[in-house]
Amino acid sequence: VWTCDEWRFQYKLALARVSTVQKLMAESSSGPNWAFCKPCGVGAWCYLIASMGLQALWSLGLACLDGYALKVKRDLNNAVLVSLFVVGDWVTAILSFAASCSAAGVTVLFERDISFCRRYYELPCGRFQLATAFAFLSWALSATSAVIMFWLLASF
Questions:
Q1: Threshold 0.85, pTM exceeds
Q2: Contact status, residue 139 vs residue 96, Cβ threshold 8 Å
């Protein structure tokens, strides 16, 4: 039951991350026409959107499978099924971490290194930081799930 709650929380965090970036894209497209202003104009943000979309789909699928197993009172302790969960969790955890780190690098670049946020106050730098924080929270839950699934696989 705990893993179902964890997967639902991962799904909600990934959706919050994707919705924050979509709001950034909508605001940026109505503002000045700068290449750096659109989040998908920066490769790190495109990668983060794709990674969090995959994370949301993976977490939703696992939560639905877990809920179905609880409903029909079936046990999911099958070695093949758990190994699939381990591989999927590790792949999504690694992709989420890489995307979060690249988005954090772009955020630091905008905020501190080249001072775009001070010069161009139209940039929603606070939302960039919030989106990156959501991405790291999603990665932390995904990595926790991957470690737990690995321990479950080792117990077979």
A1: no
A2: yes
